[in-house]
C-alpha cells in the first residue's frame, strides 16, 4: 500500500519484443449472419467509387464483415448504428473508436479473434457516420452518448474497450457508470492531463489535419517505419476495404470539428485516476506518434489494478499489427 493513498496498487507489466505471426491461425467462427449493405472516406483508406460503376460485394472470410448493421433508438430521438456478433450469452464487449473512425474502421481480423470467445458490439456514437443526432463537441457528451447507446440496448453488465480517442471515452464511461462496466481495456490512449507527456511530432499534427488521409498517412500514424510493420499495416488496411468499398463510411466535417474541439478542450481524467478501481488492461506500441507510450506507463504507476502491455516493434495501430497476440491478451484479461 502506498503511503498516504490508502489504495493498494497491483500492476503487472508485459513488454512484447517480437510477436511472430501464426500462419493460418483463425478463430472458430459461428455461422455468419446475412450481410445487408448499409447506406471519399476522410477517415478511411479507400478511394471513392467511380460514377456509374456498380460495386459488386466481395467475398470475405471474416465473421465481422458479414455482421448485420442494426439500429436502436436513443433517448433524444437519435438512432445509433451498431453491429453485434460473436458468442451469445457472454458479457458483451462494447468497443469505442478513434478520432475520425467509424464502425467500418475496425480491423475484422481483430474483431473475429475477440468474437471467438465473447459477444462483440461495435457502434457509431451520436452524430457519427450512420448514427443520427447532434455530433458532440465536448468529451463528456461523447461519454454520455456511449452510455445512452448501451442503455438503449438494455445492457446492465458490460466490458469496455476503447482505442485512441475511444480509450478516453471508455474511461469516462467506466467513471460515470462504475456499476455497469466490469472490466476496461485502454488501447493506444491516455486519460488526458498526464504530467510531462511528450507532445506529438509536428508531422503528426500536419497529417491528422489533412481533410483526407491515404495509405501513407495511416502507415505513418499507426505503424513504425520498418519493413515488417509497414507490411502488417498495409495488410490491415486492405482488410478494411471490404466494408469501406461498399459503405464509404466517413465522419462528416461537423463531427470531425466537434471531435477536435472536444480533444483540445478536454482537461483530462488524470485527477480521477484512483477512481478507476476496476481491473484495467492498458496497452500500446512503444513507437506511438499519436499518443506517446509514456501515457501508458504513467497509468501503470497510478491505477489501483492494472496490467500493462507494450509492443516494442509497434505504434498506435499495434492492435492491428498484432491482432492475434492482442486479442489473446484481451480475451485472457476479460476471462
TrEMBL record:
Domain AB hydrolase-1: 102-323
Biased composition (Low complexity): 41-50
Chain segments carrying region Disordered: 18-50
Keyword flag Hydrolase: yes
GO MF assignments: hydrolase activity
Protein keywords: Hydrolase
Protein's name according to its UniProt entry: Alpha/beta hydrolase
Provenance organism: Streptomyces glaucus
Amino acid at each position: 500500500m502506498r503511503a498516504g493513498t490508502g489504495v493498494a496498487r497491483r500492476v503487472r507489466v508485459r513488454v512484447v519484443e517480437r510477436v511472430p505471426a501464426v500462419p493460418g491461425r483463425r478463430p472458430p467462427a459461428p455461422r455468419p449472419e446475412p450481410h445487408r449493405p448499409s447506406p471519399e472516406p476522410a477517415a478511411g483508406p479507400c478511394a471513392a467509387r467511380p460514377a456509374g460503376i456498380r460495386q459488386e460485394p466481395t467475398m470475405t472470410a471474416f465473421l465481422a464483415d458479414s455482421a448485420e448493421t442494426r439500429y436502436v433508438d436513443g433517448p433524444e430521438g437519435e438512432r445509433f448504428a451498431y453491429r453485434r456478433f460473436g458468442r451469445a450469452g457472454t458479457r458483451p464487449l462494447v468497443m469505442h473508436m478513434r478520432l475520425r473512425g467509424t464502425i467500418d474502421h475496425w480491423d475484422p481480423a481483430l474483431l473475429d479473434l475477440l468474437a471467438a470467445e465473447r459477444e462483440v458490439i461495435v457502434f457509431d456514437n451520436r452524430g457519427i457516420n450512420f448514427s443520427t443526432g447532434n455530433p458532440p463537441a465536448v468529451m463528456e457528451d461523447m461519454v454520455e452518448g456511449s452510455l445512452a447507446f448501451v442503455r438503449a440496448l438494455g445492457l446492465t453488465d458490460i466490458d469496455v474497450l476503447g482505442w485512441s480517442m475511444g480509450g478516453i471515452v471508455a474511461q469516462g464511461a467506466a467513471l460515470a457508470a462504475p456499476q455497469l462496466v466490469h472490466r476496461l481495456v485502454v488501447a493506444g490512449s491516455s486519460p488526458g492531463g498526464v504530467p510531462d507527456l511528450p507532445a506529438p511530432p509536428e508531422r503528426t499534427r500536419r497529417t491528422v489535419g489533412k481533410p483526407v488521409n491515404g495509405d501513407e498517412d495511416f502507415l505513418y500514424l499507426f505503424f513504425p517505419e520498418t519493413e515488417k510493420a509497414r507490411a502488417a499495416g498495409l495488410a490491415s488496411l486492405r482488410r478494411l476495404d471490404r466494408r469501406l468499398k461498399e459503405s464509404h463510411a466517413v465522419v462528416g466535417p461537423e463531427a470531425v470539428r466537434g471531435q477536435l474541439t472536444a480533444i483540445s478542450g478536454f482537461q483530462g481524467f488524470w485527477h480521477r485516476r484512483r477512481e478507476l478501481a476496476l481491473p484495467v488492461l492498458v496497452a500500446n506500441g512503444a513507437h506511438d506518434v499519436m499518443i506517446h507510450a509514456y501515457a501508458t506507463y504513467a497509468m501503470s504507476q497510478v491505477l489501483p489494478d492494472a496490467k500493462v502491455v507494450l509492443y516494442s516493434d509497434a505504434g498506435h495501430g499495434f492492435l492491428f499489427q498484432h491482432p492475434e497476440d492482442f486479442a489473446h491478451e484481451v480475451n485472457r484479461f476479460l476471462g
